[in-house]
Amino acid sequence: MLPAVKSSQNHQVAIIGGSFDPVHNGHLHIAGEILRLTSVDKVIFVPSGKHHFKQSQIHLDYAQRLDLLRLASKTNDRFDVWDVDSPSTSGYTSDMFKQLYRDYPEHRFCFVLGSDNVSQLPRWHDFAWLSQNVEFLIIPRFNATLLPEVLAAIRYQVLSCELSPISSTLIRENIAQHLPITGLVPRDLEPIIIDSYRSHNNT
Questions:
Q1: Which fold has domain 11-165?
Q2: Which residue pairs, CB below 8 angstroms and at least 24 apart, start in 139-146?
Q3: What residue ranges of the chain have pLDDT lower than 50?
Q4: Which pairs from 130-134 meet CB under 8 Å and 24+ separation?
Q5: So where are the chain's domains?
Q6: Quick check: 139 and 159 in contact, CB under 8 A?
Q7: Residue partners of 132: CB distance under 8 A and separation at least 6
Q8: Residue 67 backbone dihedrals phi, psi, to 5 degrees
Q9: pLDDT value at position 55?
Q10: What pLDDT does 3 receive?
């Protein structure tokens, strides 16, 4: 069963998907910018249970990443976390949106995507359906090039802010090298994230 969303006419919801391995302040910053710069009512974080492009690179298991996201999302009452892309699903964005449209026909959804990933969209499963049925909210990332031929095929809006330079890779590397991650993740999550990755690295 999907979570309840407060009912309202034309309720707008932004979906941020990803591995969140781990969630960090950059993710939360972008979510806040979406609320500030658009008419979106709520930002939903959706951790991927199956990442078709980098499954072997995911470190923490799905339940751990989901729990960390739920803790991080408490920083804003307009953030939420849904498990609609769990390991029991196909892991395809198109299937997730078809389910959302069935269960929440009164709401408008958009999918948040970094500009560096836009060029990969034609490789996504069921891209033809996505291009016709999903609106993409594109976050500029440094010098990433937006290919005109891809943009011409999709419905999109480009947000006037940049992705944070913080990355999950940087956080994992700092933990492995016993370097601080202060300022990279929510303060309350620092010890939990450090313990989670050190436990993972020792297994």
A1: Rossmann fold (3.40.50)
A2: 139/30, 139/112, 139/113, 139/114, 139/115, 139/163, 140/115, 141/114, 141/115, 141/116, 142/116, 144/114, 144/115, 144/116, 144/118, 145/119, 146/115, 146/118
A3: 1-2, 4-8
A4: 130/93, 130/94, 130/97, 130/154, 131/155, 133/97, 133/101, 134/93, 134/94, 134/97, 134/109, 134/110
A5: 11-165
A6: yes
A7: none
A8: -65, -45
A9: 52
A10: 52
Instruction: Report d(CA 86, CA 51) in Å as an integer.
Output: 10
ω into 22 cis (within 30 of 0): yes
Lookup: tokens for 119: 């060029």
Q: Which residue has the tokens 């436990």?
A: 199
Residue 159, strand partner residues: none
pLDDT for the residue 57: 77
Question: Which pLDDT score is estimated for 2?
Answer: 46
Per-residue model confidence (pLDDT) at position 182: 97
pTM reported for the whole predicted model: 0.91
What string of DSSP letters covers 149-203? HHHTTSEEEE-SS---S--HHHHHHHHHTT---BTTB-GGGHHHHHHHHHHHHT-
Instruction: Find where tokens 């972008």 sit.
Output: 30
- Structural tokens at position 46: 């959706």
The CA angle 129-33-22, to the nearest 5 degrees, is 75
Looking at residue 6, its pLDDT comes to 46
